[in-house]
Amino acid sequence: MTQSESFEYQSVQTLKGVGPAVAVKLEKLGITTIQDVLFHLPLRYEDRTRVVPIGALKSGQQVVVEGVIEHSEVRFSRKGGRWGKSKAGSGRSLLCYLSDGTGGIVLRFFYFNASQQAMLAAGQRVRCFGEVRHGANSLEMTHPEYKSLAENECLPVKDALTPVYPKTEGVHQTLLRNLAEQVLTRLNDNAVPEWLPESLRKEKSFPHLSQALKRVHNPEAGISLDSIEAVKHPAQQRLIFEELLAHRLSMLQFRQKAEKYQARPHNIKSNMLTNFVRQFGFELTAAQKKVIQEIASDLKNNVPMMRLLQGDVGSGKTAVSACAALAVLSDSNQVAIMAPTEILASQLYENFSRWFKTSKNNDACLLLTGKDKGKKRDNKLDAIRQGKVSIVVGTHALFQEDVEFDSLSLVIVDEQHRFGVHQRLSLREKGAKGGIVPHQLIMTATPIPRSLAMTAYADLDYSVIDELPVGRKKVTTVVLSDQRRNEVIERVTEACRKGEQAYWVCTLVEESEVLQCQAAEETAAQLNQDFKDLTIGLVHGRMKQEEKDAVVARFKTGEINLLVATTVIEVGVDVPNASLMVIENAERLGLSQLHQLRGRVGRGEKQSSCVLMYQSPLSERAKQRLAIIRENSSGFVIAQKDLEMRGAGEVLGTRQTGVVGMRIADVLRDEFMLDDVKQAAEQIQAQWPDSVKPLIRRWMGWSEQYGSV
Ligand code: ADP
Ligand code: MG
């Protein structure tokens, strides 16, 4: 039997209930085969195995309750805050007061029709399933699932936990559950190949793959929600191990492929480096020197460097990357530098132009962004293609197909957490010419915990700048309610009048970009009114690039005292004289983002401060999060805590690209397995190389592994 005919590779369309239309929707979830259904694992579980007495309910639980509606009514309410509009339109809601003799709970419906309203009337017995929340006066369930019961009717409960699958629009949980059940009933030990070596399974007491899959989709009766959430079940442990293994194997493959490529070797001459560094106007830190040496020894080789450089905000990554560029330029090869935003790209362009200006060559450097169009762009592309420029700085625009280099030998990617694995690979392809690919240096301020480095970044070497330039003062951080906004305004004005410069950052993460820009505009207008003697600038994401650049430039020269901005200012903008930063709605931002923002100040000699303003009341969790920022200045500590609170994918901003988008594993929680996973991966590669591809395919799909490689 060939692989394509085997059970696991049969189309989902062989299952009941899947016609062409449903198949298209499932494809969006990455489900095209039977195997994909099996490995579309539950995200979590619901406990519908018992009816919980209302008197024993706690907020946050998802439970089944049963009772009699004592009273029901339609209420009108005004919802919506300063920027928000009520989701419920009219603000009309149906409230049903349910009680079971042990206590009462309110069922709240924002959407309901006349027949539902008639059914949910006083005297009706119902069974509900939903999430319990604190309401104004009592516990509530919003839009529970419900079923009416006759007076003495006795409805059975489920005997095991119910799986909840990750889903997409148009695919209902019931469909996903039904597909899983169909596949599981046809599943025997021979239906899906077991790729884990028996010795390993024995050693770890892992169940067979098909047993593990059955248990994870359908936990046995009697297993409690708590125990399954503890993720200690052998079935769970086995699948987690296999998933981590698949990721590790896929990264090893990337790496092996990379090592087959060739790159041009470059040497940095030490007197040249000394002269070059002199123009910075500062002494390199020991950490910067160490990293420059690591890069220099990579560049000497004819295999492409693949190095990740991590250094906290303000640690001086730019200067390090310039030294790397120097090596390549001295051999008259080209360097490409990529930044995530146009503001950042133009700032890097300024630095590199200044550092690489020579007597014979004033235009060694070129800036290419999305705003280059028509003739101007064509000219730039010609210059790049013909090798007339040696350094090309740009945004994503550098990825475009018609950008061709003459002799690209080094690609520097700044603030890498915005780029995914595939983008980084396609950049490498871009420079490939006659079997030669460029070296790559990837720079990020986001610390990569060991757990992630071993999975998502296993294809890269790793350097870290673990020291800030001397003389940096810690930024004093305070957390204040926005009810004290006026005091903050006073403080900012006072500072500006004394010649300092300040940022005022407006954030509205949940809302649209339009609203965020609007908020910044309003704030700027209001501050302008209050302080006629100060010059206030405004930058936000909806302004034209030229406008943004012009404002940032005026801020740099000191002409603007106070810069009102949205989070576009987040990465890399470098104005050493700015010493005060106010962040509005700080509670809405991620910790690493706050740390990045705060890193805009404290770059010069002055004692700097940062005011985190929040909208009260602040939840307990939000209070803890802001305290982490207030009390810590190390990006590494903050990122670690952020990771603990939010999970890996969000911290690295890679959830969308799927790099860390695991199905059942959680690199932080499961970190203890990583050493064994690493060992198993090497063993499988050496002894069972045929298992590698099917394992990767099973967990990561075709696209993940082979999409752009
Ligand atoms: P990041 O690592 O966040 O990209 P930058 O490269 O933008 O940091 O450097 C931040 C600031 O520190 C810049 O103004 C830069 O000129 C300065 N800087 C870099 N290295 C040193 C150093 N060794 N001593 C003093 N200042 C430095
Ligand atoms: Mg930087």
Overview of the molecule:
The chain is an alpha/beta fold and 709 residues long. The protein folds into four domains: 94 residues, no CATH class; 104 residues, Nucleic acid-binding proteins (OB fold (Dihydrolipoamide Acetyltransferase, E2P), Beta Barrel), CATH 2.40.50; 240 residues, Rossmann fold, CATH 3.40.50; 157 residues, Rossmann fold (3-Layer(aba) Sandwich). It has 24 helices and 21 strands. Strands 11-12-10-13-14-9-15 form a seven-stranded parallel sheet, with helices on both faces. A six-stranded parallel sheet has the order 16-21-20-17-19-18, sandwiched between helices. Helix 10 packs parallel to helix 11. The protein is globular, with a radius of gyration of 29 Å. It starts with 19 loop residues before the first helix and ends with a helix. The structure holds adenosine-5'-diphosphate and magnesium ion (MG). The site of adenosine-5'-diphosphate has 19 residues, from helix 11.
Q: How far apart are the termini?
A: 29 Å
Q: What structural class do you assign from the helix and strand content? A: alpha/beta
Bound compounds? adenosine-5'-diphosphate, magnesium ion
Side by side, the strands of the main sheet go 11-12-10-13-14-9-15
How would you briefly describe this protein structure?
With 709 residues, the protein is of the alpha/beta class. 38% of the residues lie in helices and 17% in strands. It contains 24 helices and 21 strands.
